[in-house]
Amino acid sequence: MDFALDDEQSLLVSTVRRWSERGLRTWAADADRGGTAPGPMWSAAAELGLLLDAVPAAAGGLLDGDAGAYSHLARALRGIELGRGCAALAALCESNVEPALAVARWGSSAARETLYRAIAADGAPPAIAVVAHDFHERLAIEDGGAAVTLRGRLGPLPGLALASHVLVVATGAAPVLALIPVASPGARVVPCDPAPSAWRAAAWGALELDGAAIPAELVLARGAAARAAATEVLSWMRVGLAARAVGVAAIALDHAAAYGRDRVQFGQPIGRFESIAHMLDENQTAVAAARLLVLQAAWEIDRGAASAADSASRARDLAARVVARATIDAVQIFGGYGFVNDFPVEKLMRDARPFEVLAGNEALSRVLAAVEG
Amino acid sequence: MDLFHGEPMFGAVRQMTHALAEQEIRPIAALHDRDESMPWDLMKKASSFGLSQTAMLDTRRITGDADDRGDKGGERKPGRAARVAVVGAEELAWGCAGIGLALAGSGLAAAPVARIGSEEHKQIFLRALKGVDEAGHIKVAAMALSEPQTGSDISSLATGARRDGDHWVLNGHKQWITNGRSASIYVVWAQTDASLGRGGVRGFLVERGTPGLVPGRKETKLGIRASETAQVHFEDCRVHKDLMLGADRVSEGLGDTKKMLDATRPAVGAQAVGIARAAFEYLLERVRGGSLRGKPLAGHQHIAFALAEMEMEIQASRLLVHRAAWMADHAMDNVAFASMGKAHAARTAQAVTTRALALLGDEALEPGHPVEKWYRDAKIYDIFEGTGQIQRRIIAKTLTGLNAV
User: Fold this and answer.
1) Range of the domain at A340
2) Domains in chain A, number
3) Is residue A144 less than 8 Å (CB to CB) from chain B?
4) Best residue in A266, A325, A355 to probe B by mutation, most B CBs within 10 Å?
5) Which of A186, B109, B269, B381 is deepest in the core (most CB within 10 A)?
6) pLDDT along chain A (373 residues), means of 10
7) A47 occurs within a structural domain
């Protein structure tokens, strides 16, 4: 067992961290207030390879090989660093990963063609793809054997207002994995206005489907195969969410620790009060544990381990709770300054929420899975 | 010990404030949260309901004050103001904590005037709040205590008051001041004699328009966004010596403000209970109407036990807060219970809103979702009016006699 990063991983971490600090974090406050991602972010993200790293090189992307060649461990390391910059902007930068990999893995040539062409096209901002998981089984799905017809509403989801395609993941009575161009007849994206208070710059929207017929070539899987595929897609997604959650938690604690060193009350830096020191220490332990679980889950996915889905779910469950606690406690340590928008931690506390609820309630899912066998 | 029963008045207060919360506050809560605006129309209306912001100036209504005792054959008659305050505060915060604070914000300044101000001070204060201001808004007051470098540690106030003839000259900066930009009159706490330490801190009445009083920037906040919070600056602000509160009595200096915070703490805790209850009731309604995997949501232990846990914590918080108020009304030392109530209620409000969000799932990501708002509102209760750490320090000191660091 070796916990050290190799040279390539170290370079990845340092590169993304530098961009996260010099780019994402400097844009974060204005993006939050304005509710939009800054234009320069997209070109920089493209240069760093964040937008097309899961698109096969043969289709104009950066992935050298098929979906199996993608390193979820590298993505997790990257996600932690992106989370340290801005949860909303990080979510946009990482949005293409699951749809691109799913299409590479199970998509027809038509699905590859339509998705990769759309997300590789120049645009300001560029089109992206997002995953919509029908966790609450709100969709009415008619599987006609060829086309699949969908009715219902999904969202709000980050990135949807910028999306050209949505990968719908349904695991209920009629499991299906399907790629929906948002311009399809019967499909409509309704941008969230105003934006939710979390990830405000993440171009939130809801997908309304009113008899949208998805042609067979865009249905990636159905039935048992769709259920199995969904497990994989959701594992990728859970690890991505968890990694960014760890990053948000880590930066919240960095801010709080720095403030604890600087802020003097009752004649000493507040970080020297035992209650504050303990609060920080406990959170730092939790973040370290969540980070390791995230990396382990990603490592298991890369190896195709049978336990990968379970580990990904545990990682998301833990990381979501860790980021909630860490950001609430960071605001506490900042006191009155933590509650106002001049300092970064109140945004982090708002931004912690989606990690726990996007793509379903992890804790509840785990409990149900345990009792239902 | 009977905290509330047998006093029909408390039921009437609850009924009236709940109706106000349900019919007037809830419908506008999301709007004022989004726009970060004061509910001026409602403040005017509430004032006409008798929820006057100056009502606290009746010293008999001030908690725990000696004047709060009747004198029938030497027997003390308990007051009711603290209990009325907690009953009303919970209901208003159930509607919207930010709006509740906007309605009650002037009370923070009224309390010290009522407690240590002279009759003339009270008249000045009341006069300053009559009518409407230049924007046509009901007039409000502000208590200016906290400073950029003194959040929890209020004993090290840097705002100074220098005597110059018949005046005091105030210089300094105040931070996180409720009604800081809009107030027509301020109660400003400043150090008159650093050699006296806490004993040198005194309160001054300063009216809007006084040269040297400069309302500062309004803060953009995580929650309670309907309540205005701003900086206030004092630049050679000359205040007549007669406007010093408590000049005609032996002042306890900062001790006066600490007693003030002890007096208002139960009502602050009650606000946190109101937020927790709001989120709890929202979730309960959802659970009662929902099902999962063919089973009622309420039939799942994961959900039902969460509700049970929330109910336990809310009830415990309310009992602590009510006991602290009951003690205040009986002129008993309620320091520990006031802190326990506030700290426990703050923690409960955060825990209940956080858990409710998790259980509601992505529904609560919808813009303007009430539980998400209550989650943001709840956090301040662990920070203002004494942080959770300060409350624990107070409680611990009553147990050990030492200041724990």
Assistant:
1) 225-372
2) 1
3) no
4) A266
5) B269
6) 94 98 97 96 96 95 94 98 98 98 98 97 94 93 93 96 98 95 97 95 97 97 97 97 98 98 94 97 98 98 97 98 98 97 97 94 89 82
7) no
Let me know if residue A129 belongs to a domain: no
Please name the member of B367, B375, B380 whose beta carbon is closest to the beta carbon of A194: B367
Q: Give yes or no for A197 touching B (CB within 8 A).
A: yes
Q: Residue A303: give its domain's CATH number.
A: 1.20.140.10
Number of H helices, E strands in chain B: 11, 9
Q: Which amino acid is at A84?
A: R
Query: Tell me, what's the pLDDT at B75?
Result: 59
CB contact under 8 A, B387 and A204: no
Strand A128-133 to A163-170 pairing? parallel
Q: Does A136 touch chain B (CB under 8 A)?
A: yes
Distance from CA of B371 to the nearest CA of A (A): 12
| For chain B, domain boundaries | 254-400
Question: In this predicted structure, what is the pLDDT of residue B65?
Answer: 45
Backbone angles phi, psi at A330, to 5 degrees: -65, -40
With an 8 Å Cβ cutoff, is A372 touching chain B? yes
Q: What is the ipTM of this complex?
A: 0.94
**How far, in Å, CA of B84 to CA of B98, rounded?**
19
Give the nearest partner residue to B221 out of A156, A193, A339, using CB atoms: A339
Q: Which residue has the tokens 């970080």?
A: A271
Mutate to test the interface with B, among A136, A137, A192, A197 (most CBs of B within 10 A): A197
Chain B residues in contact with A275 (beta carbon < 8 A)? 389, 392
Instruction: Please judge whether B389 and A275 are an interchain contact, meaning their C-beta atoms are less than 8 angstroms apart.
Output: yes
Half-sphere exposure of residue A169, counting CA atoms within 13 Å on the CB side? 24
Which fold, B254-400? Butyryl-CoA Dehydrogenase, subunit A; domain 3 (1.20.140)
Whether A193 and chain B come into contact, CB under 8 Å, resolves to yes
Using a CB-CB distance cutoff of 8 angstroms, which residues of chain B are in contact with residue A200? none
Which pLDDT score is estimated for B71?
43
Question: Which residues from A are below 8 Å from B389, CB to CB?
Answer: 273, 275-276
Note whether A339 contacts B293, CB cutoff 8 Å: no
Strand order in the sheet with A128-133: A128-133, A163-170, A176-181, A219-222
Provide, as residue numbers in chain A, all residues whose Cβ is less than 8 Å from the Cβ of B33: none
* Closest among B379, B335, B374, B381 to B357, alpha carbons compared: B374
pLDDT at position A233, please? 98
Q: Which residues of A touch B303 (CB under 8 A)?
A: 364
As annotated, the active-site residues of B are 385
Judge contact between B193 and B292, C-beta under 8 A: no
Distance CA A99, CA A132 (A): 10
B140-196 pLDDT, tens digit per residue, is 999 999 999 987 777 789 999 999 999 999 999 999 999 999 999 999 999 999 888
Here the tokens at position B251 are 């002042």
What's the CA gap between B304 and B292, in Å, rounded?
Answer: 13
CA angle B6, B12, B18 (to 5 degrees): 130
What gap in Å lies between CA B374 and CA B98, rounded to an integer? 10
The alpha carbon of residue A64 is apart from the nearest alpha carbon of chain B, in Å, by: 35
Mark yes or no for CB contact B222/A335 under 8 Å.
no
Say what the pLDDT of residue B49 is. Answer: 66
Question: Is residue A242 assigned to a domain?
Answer: yes
Residue B150 makes CB contacts below 8 A (sequence gap 6+) with A265, B156, B157, B158
Q: What is the mean pLDDT of each run of 10 residues along chain B (405 residues)?
A: 71 93 97 97 82 50 42 64 92 97 90 88 94 92 93 84 97 96 96 88 95 96 97 98 83 69 88 98 96 91 97 98 93 95 98 96 93 98 94 96 92
pLDDT of B156: 82
